[in-house]
Amino acid sequence: MTVEANERAGVESAVAGSTPARVLAARTRGLRKTYGRTVAVDRVDLDLPEGAVLGMLGPNGSGKTTTIRMLLGLTQPTAGEVELLGHALPGGAGHALPHVGALVEGPGFHPFLSGRENLRRVGAAEPLLATGSIRKAVDDALERVGLAAAAGRNYRGYSLGMKQRLGLAAALLVPRRLIVLDEPTNGLDPSGTREVRQVIADLHAAGATVLVSSHLLAEVEATCTHVAVLHQGTVVAQGELAELLQAGSPALQVSTEDISTALNALRAAKVSARAEGDGLRVELTGTTAPEVLRTLVQAGVAVQEARRHRAGLEELFARLTESEPAAIDAEEPR
Ligand SMILES: Nc1ncnc2c1ncn2[C@@H]1O[C@H](COP(=O)(O)OP(=O)(O)OP(=O)(O)O)[C@@H](O)[C@H]1O
């Protein structure tokens, strides 16, 4: 479905009083890429809702960069479909790409031009930037990524972090509907990492959609509304971050002083539990929180507090990527 059709469907179902359809900034179906006998990406169905900040996570070699390159039309898929801002690639690239800013590996900057001169060259090739606006757009972008002071120096002498900042500035040169950042904090110091986080937050607040790949789980947890986890070339989980974290941790933490009575009662009820902290951790597989509490109360256990265990992204990521791929979805397509 195109963005326009998506929007129409959303309006229609809202009028009808049901849940509006999601508008997707990017969508892939059955995406596959092979290099000789290496399968880099396989069966990737990615949904990037408009307005989301989606963190793409995965171990080294899991297919993040390859997926991003196919999304941007930089690499031709072996099989499958890509839709960007409602336009099918490769045919619709000319319509979609002017609205997409991207920071991907190896931006083609000229080594003997300054950062500012390089950006002006990029600006001159931007269809959405009028010639008279290039200088100001370049200076604004340099300021935004903290590179104004080094803007006159040759690109060749830039550190890795400065190169990353310049790539980010190029992505931000004109207002975009979608920004795609492949490992944007690679090579950045802590202040650079904070600045990237702020840039992403500003883009999100302005209504842009952001796709960011990262190894930094804490960073993704702090900045993203959605995540997609890749493992061995396939998506093993995707959806809203909060929903995924909840779906990935069906456990209850129970505070009680009657630990042994509680464990015995739960074992008798064939519920998996173990002592943890000042109480128990009870797995909610094959049972529910009310059932667990009923079992404990019936056994005379004094329950002081019971709360759902909230898994961090790190725990979820480890569970998903340390085993064989087993797809889970946080949310059904609406
Ligand atoms: N141009 C290429 N030629 C051959 N193999 C490739 C090429 N590009 C990627 N691959 C392979 O495809 C797989 C996925 O690589 P990709 O770079 O997409 O992973 P990644 O998740 O981005 O990794 P990293 O986190 O290390 O950047 C790897 O096995 C990689 O070696």
Automatic annotation (TrEMBL):
InterPro entries according to UniProt: AAA+_ATPase, ABC_transporter-like_ATP-bd, ABC_transporter-like_CS, P-loop_NTPase
GO terms of molecular function: ATP binding; ATP hydrolysis activity
Record keywords: ATP-binding, Nucleotide-binding, Transport
Gene3D superfamilies: P-loop containing nucleotide triphosphate hydrolases
Coiled-coil intervals: none
PROSITE patterns reported in the protein's UniProt record: ABC_TRANSPORTER_1, ABC_TRANSPORTER_2
All copies of domain ABC transporter, residue ranges: 26-257
Signal peptide: none
Family (UniProt): Belongs to the ABC transporter superfamily.
Protein name (record): ABC transporter ATP-binding protein
Organism the protein comes from: Solihabitans fulvus
